[in-house]
Amino acid sequence: MWPLSLALPIKLIVTLLLLAASQYHLWSRLSSGSVFAPEFPRGVVIAFNWAFGAILLLAVLQLLLDLGTLATTLVRRESVAVPDGVRYSIGGVAALLSAVAVANAIRVPPIKDVEISIPGLPPEFDGYRLIQLTDLHISKLFPKSWTRAVVDRTNEAGADLIVVTGDFIDGSVAMRRADVAPLADLTARDGVYAIPGNHEYFFDYNAWMRHLTGLGLVMLPNVHHVLRRGEGRLVLAGITDLSAPNVGQPGPDLHAALAGAPAGVPVLLLDHQPRQARKAAAAGVAVQLSGHTHGGMIVGLDRFVAPANKGFVSGRYMVGGMTLYVNNGTALWPGFALRLWRPSELTRITLRRR
User: Fold this and answer.
1) How confident is the model at residue 113 (pLDDT cuts 50, 70, 90)?
2) What is the dihedral of CA 229, 129, 310, 342, to 10 degrees?
3) Helices 42-76, 8-22: inter-axial angle, 10-degree rounding
4) Could you tell me which of 128, 232, 280, 252 has the C-alpha nearest to residue 189?
5) Is 1 inside any structural domain?
6) Which residue intervals of 34-143 are DSSP H helices?
7) In this structure, what CATH number is given to the domain that contains residue 153?
8) Using the 8-state DSSP alphabet, how is residue 83 labeled?
9) Model's pTM, two decimal places?
């Protein structure tokens, strides 16, 4: 702000507004007691995300402008002044990109079709279709109307099975009871199965597991279920999240999840975070479905997300003989609701015999 040729009072007012927007997560904590659950009206949450995103994008553009100015100064060996018009332009670009990013983040995603081939898949399961939902983050930003639209689109996709790979909510059961209610209407021939994500552990894990079970979802915390089609069988296993031990809950245990599973039957594993994929592959899992990363949210930012997730951020990976699919997320955390070139997904997966 300082180099702009504006009156000092205007500079101070705009600076205070920028500082207020930059403290979005502080205001969120004050609104609900948790940085993960901003309890403002949806329009205010959208506005905060737009302003916060614009500040971050402007910071990146400003650094690029500074580097360009420095390089020009070194080449010319004289001081170079940046016109106000250039600074206003990068501010406008940042604001526009942030608006597009928020719009991409809060949409109800279209169906994305993915095919996964599995060695030894019983012929009865060739063409078997499942919908993967993940990172719904039902909240003030993704309220009941959004949840209803996602449920309707999921049901219309006509899958044999629906799975949810964690991070259902941001908020307590009392906060989100009405917003999650449409999940009770999810329906598929072989049912709706799910696992917890890390955010369920932030808001009374046991209460949420009881409530989600009451909505008709079959939770798979370190357990499995055998799907049957005639003589064919497929093991659907789920594990808890890596963050579980932090709140005194059982951590992910693939051995326990597969205990008693029929030998020689392909295993489809639900694991919220993708970073344990190599362990799953070593255990003979055929397919792992994960989320958690939100696809990195913004191209470039995904490179910073990758190390914490063992390099697995978005899309399909072959890990040994196992296929890992990392879903970009049906939604994402309302504290950073921005997407640029990393679209949200409502993913319909078709299994094929290899």
Assistant:
1) very high
2) -170
3) 120
4) 128
5) no
6) 42-76, 84-106
7) 3.60.21.10
8) P
9) 0.96
